[in-house]
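pls design
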């Protein structure tokens, strides 16, 4: 982990807002990934059993959390130098060897590519369903509209696009939680009414 001297030096490179809003940034990042996952997952069939879905979500969350911790431990060893890089893990990989950096670059590029393909498919499929246009036409339209964004710096996209999608994802999460709470209350009300009328008889 980061010792006191590293943390003190690191905070020099952060603005006051960055130091205060890191919790909000973390929430928005989770919500952003949730929103993108929904675009893809809605196109797949639902799991056959609720238990399987819960177990899969728990294991997925645990493994992703473990990867985040390992990522943090690796990055924290190179503070505050990594704050000057748009992709800090590339710098970390380069400290191991130049070949490791090349391998990480390829893996990262493939990860971005597969994510883009999956999200484009899910988003285009939804647009085609709502608009009534053909999938091919919607795919061309969405890809064309995305081209200007692809020319922007990665740090700019992370700083502006991620928060926007994060807020949208946060709204979706709140709506889902609200709907789930409403369903639970309705079920409880129904069970209480059934119990009440059963006792009255």
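designed seq:
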């Amino acid at each position: 982990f980061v010792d006191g001297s590293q943390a003190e030096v690191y905070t020099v490179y952060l603005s006051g807002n960055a130091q205060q809003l890191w919790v909000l940034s973390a929430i928005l990042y989770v919500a952003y990934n949730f929103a993108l996952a929904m675009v893809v997952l809605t196109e797949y069939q639902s799991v056959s059993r609720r238990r399987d879905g819960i177990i899969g979500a728990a294991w997925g969350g645990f493994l992703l959390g473990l990867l985040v911790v390992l990522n943090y431990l690796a990055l924290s060893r190179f503070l505050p130098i990594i704050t000057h890089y748009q992709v800090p893990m590339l710098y970390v990989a380069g400290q191991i060897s130049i070949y490791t950096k090349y391998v990480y670059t390829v893996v990262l590029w493939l990860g971005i590519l597969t994510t883009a393909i999956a999200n484009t498919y899910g988003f285009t499929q939804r647009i085609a369903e709502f608009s009534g246009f053909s999938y091919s036409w919607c795919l061309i339209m969405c890809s064309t509209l995305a081209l200007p964004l692809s020319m922007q710096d990665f740090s700019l996209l992370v700083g502006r696009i991620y928060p926007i999608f994060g807020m949208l994802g946060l709204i979706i999460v709140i709506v889902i939680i609200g709907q789930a709470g409403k369903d639970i209350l309705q079920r409880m009300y129904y069970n209480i009414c059934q119990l009440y009328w059963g006792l009255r008889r």
